[in-house]
Amino acid sequence: MTLSLSRRFGRSIVTLALFATVAFLIAPIVLTVVASFATSWTGVLPSGFVTFENWRAVLGLADTIGSQRSMGWRPLFSLPLGGERLTVLVPAELAFSIGLALGGVLINLVVGVPIAYAVSRYEFPGKEWVNAVSVLPLVPGVILGVAFLRAYPDLSATSFGLIVGYSLLKAPFMVMAVQSEFESMPLRQLEESARSLGASWPRTFLTVIVPNARSGIVSGAIICWALAAAEFNFSYIVWAKGTQPLALFLQRHISNSSFTKAAAAVSMFFFIIVAVTLLLQRVGRRGFDTRGS
């Protein structure tokens, strides 16, 4: 009797619990996006639809002052058009933060992938220490920010300092994601097969090992980029002047703007994360080739 009831209702209960959990997690995101197009949000639900003023204010298309200052627009590039030049403008904080996060991901790729490969492929003295050190930066951004500020006071005040800091903070995620992928691959057989055909070790690594590990590499890149773009604690400690990282821009709007403008700022960040994630996933599905032309 009990087994019959389990077969009859078990799957339905599990499915219902799954949908309820997903709805519980997605509801705040949907409500925030909806509120970004409202004029006010004083009760449980936003009201006064539909307006784009919140988005205009956040993107710097409307006049704002003081702590509610929105994004500034800066020229990205110019194109010749009918004897004149067409200048393409982008939001400063947005472009700045995307560049910082991508710079951190690039460092993570250059450093993290070889480390993950070495730890997964070879046995050598001190391997456990290398593996431990590779995940050592997995500490709160406040701690690394203070240490970074004291150790490299001149570097920390620059954009490159932020990039290096982001890469240090997120490197463990890249190493662990790629290491898991490498450990599921027959690395020795792949390497020996390529070497037996006359390929050098660098060529073997770049044209055989790396393309076969693209799933882990892309996953690590997505995680590192999303976390770096949203890194607040390290940015708050280290950033001194100039264009603000996006995390500080969001914090300013959340703290000093109306709920609806804060919702627009958060929604903008969410859409950026979704767009970059889909782009990187597309790269992962199509694959990539490091052999060149």
Structural write-up:
Keywords: Cell inner membrane, Cell membrane, Membrane, Transmembrane, Transmembrane helix, Transport. Belongs to the binding-protein-dependent transport system permease family. It holds the Pfam family BPD_transp_1. The protein is mostly helical. Helix content is 69%, strand content 8%. The protein is built from 13 helices and four strands. The protein has a two-stranded antiparallel sheet with strand order 1-2. Helix 3 packs antiparallel against helix 4 (127-134), helix 7 packs antiparallel against helix 10 and helix 8 packs across helix 9.
Ordered list of secondary-structure elements with their pairings:
Layout (H helix, E strand, L loop, with lengths): L1 H34 L2 E3 L6 E3 L3 H6 L14 E9 L2 E8 H30 L5 H8 L6 H11 L1 H4 L2 H25 L3 H10 L4 H12 L1 H16 L3 H6 L7 H11 L2 H28 L7
Antiparallel strand pairs: 1-2, 3-4
Biggest β-sheet: strands ordered side by side in the sheet: 1-2
Percent strand: 5-15%
Q: Tell me the major beta sheet.
A: 2 strands, antiparallel
Write the element-wise H/E pattern from the N-terminal end onward.
HEEHEEHHHHHHHHHHH
Question: What gyration radius follows from the Cα positions, in whole Å?
Answer: 24 Å
CATH topological fold name of one domain? MetI-like fold
User: pLDDT under 50 segments (min length 5)?
Assistant: none
The level-1 CATH class of one domain: Mainly Alpha
Note the total helix count: 13
Overall 3D geometry?
Answer: globular
CATH superfamily assignment of one domain? MetI-like
CATH architecture of one domain: Orthogonal Bundle
Q: Tell me the span between the first and last alpha carbons.
A: 66 Å
Helical percentage: 55-70%
Q: What is the count of β-strands?
A: 4
Query: Overall mean pLDDT score?
Result: 80
Q: Report the structural category.
A: mainly alpha
